[in-house]
Design brief:
Blueprint (H helix, E strand, L loop, with lengths): L9 E2 L14 H8 L5 E2 L1 E6 L7 E4 L14 E5 L2 E5 L12 E3 L7 H18 L3 E4 L3 E5 L6 E3 L3 E15 L5 E15 L11 H4 L3 E4 L17 E8 L19 E7 L17 E7 L3 E3 L13 H12 L12 H16 L7 E4 L5 E4 L13
Antiparallel strand pairs: 1-2, 3-12, 3-19, 4-6, 4-7, 5-6, 8-9, 9-11, 10-11, 11-12, 13-14, 13-17, 14-15, 15-16, 18-19
The chain binds zinc ion (ZN).
Zinc ion binds next to loops.
């Protein structure tokens, strides 16, 4: 097993379990906080079935053969290509045969299914979700830590990372580590208000959020997604790339550097070309800075107070700004409360389906160091 696949972060032994939280089932909280060996922030995953669900596999085809296909989904695991998910019924390719695969037979494929199942589950619950290299970040917009000037919000951010851990009995434990932090959620558009500070906006990632963008607009397919990075404000009257309607305001033209999606499929073994860029001009009123960019704080006169609120919430500091010694406990409680919400405040774990139809459960009682093999 690779070292980077096992990164349990120990949290301290809990000396006094907390008073039950109104939103949490008392017994679940008690269970999760009662010391039984050192806690980790690693939560085990249980599979509802012995196998990964409905899929087909092929040793003759590769994922790259289907680069233009959206359905079904494909996953390449060594010499094996798996096909699964929506559209599998209509997928006719004689190179693929139905297969029964256990999680242990292809643990990294299992982790992939868990990650994507979790992302869909969180999106369906209304959260803003971002895919990271090895994990998933979710922003808790329902419980902002602090807002300022109608300009920016500080939100809790939870990062879920799938991992494989070897148990003390030599067994394989599928798990998700959860870390908690805080993130910036900008809630302004690039209108006249910030036009005097282009230096603070440079390279800011921007999301197209236009209520009047229609399929006629050349940018329509990027609606709701990051469209590029801020370059500069353009002179009034500069021709716009966007065809978004703008009856309610005078457009504040903004130049945005946009990375082009490569149209040609990448060749196996070939070198990939650097992505091409172009500059587009859109009304500043149809873009907002993407969530998570700390640079936005510099635009706020309240930036110190905002960052302070984040650190207090996270447990780094007490409300009177002293360093806390029980910060890890505070983080652990945030994680438990969030998991309780995801489980609908029932005592069970967080249940969600994978795209192969198998359901998995993210348990709310973490793996303790007793059940993890020593190095
Ligand atoms: Zn548009």
């Amino acid at each position: 097993m690779h070292d980077d696949q096992r990164r349990p972060v120990p949290t301290p032994r809990s000396a006094n379990p907390l008073a039950p939280d109104a939103q949490l089932s008392p017994s679940t909280l008690q269970d999760a906080l009662t010391p039984r060996g050192l806690f980790t922030n690693l939560f085990p995953i249980d599979f509802s079935a012995a196998n990964l669900g409905i899929l087909r596999q092929s040793e003759k085809a590769t994922k790259e053969d289907f680069i233009d296909r959206r359905r079904p989904r494909f996953y390449q695991s060594g010499e094996t290509c798996y096909a699964y998910g929506p559209g599998l019924d209509e997928f006719k390719d004689a190179r693929f045969t139905s297969a029964i695969v256990t999680p242990a037979a292809d643990p990294y494929f299992a982790l992939h299914l868990i990650k994507h199942g979790l992302m869909e589950f969180l999106r369906a619950a209304g959260y803003l979700v971002r895919s990271r290299l090895v994990g998933v970040s979710v922003y808790d917009h329902e419980n902002p830590i602090k807002s300022a000037e109608g300009f920016v919000k500080i939100l809790p951010e939870y990062t879920f990372q799938t991992s494989l851990v070897e148990g003390a009995q030599g067994n394989l434990i599928f798990a998700i580590s959860i870390d908690v932090g805080w993130s910036i959620a900008p809630v302004f558009e690039l209108g006249p208000r910030v036009a005097t500070r282009p230096d603070l906006l440079e390279n800011l990632k921007l999301v197209l959020e236009c209520s009047e963008c229609t399929a006629r607009c050349p940018l329509y397919e990027r609606l709701g997604h990051i469209i590029g990075v801020f370059d500069s404000f353009a002179a009034e009257g500069t021709e716009l790339t966007s065809a978004c309607q703008h009856h309610d305001y005078t457009p504040q033209p903004v130049r945005i550097r946009q990375r082009m999606r490569s149209s040609a499929p990448r060749r196996r073994g070939g070198t990939s070309k650097p992505p091409e860029e172009r500059t587009i001009v859109v009304p500043g009123q149809v873009v907002t800075p993407a969530t998570g960019q700390r640079q936005v704080l510099r635009l706020s006169t309240d930036s110190n107070a905002l960052a302070l609120a984040g650190r207090i919430w996270l447990g780094d500091l007490t409300p009177d700004r002293r360093v806390r010694t029980d910060g890890l406990q505070v983080r652990y409680e945030h994680i438990q409360r969030f998991l309780a919400r995801l489980a609908n405040h029932e005592t069970r774990g967080v249940i969600f389906p994978t795209e192969t139809g198998t359901r998995v459960t993210l348990e709310r009682v973490p793996v303790t160091t007793e059940v993890i093999a020593d190095d």
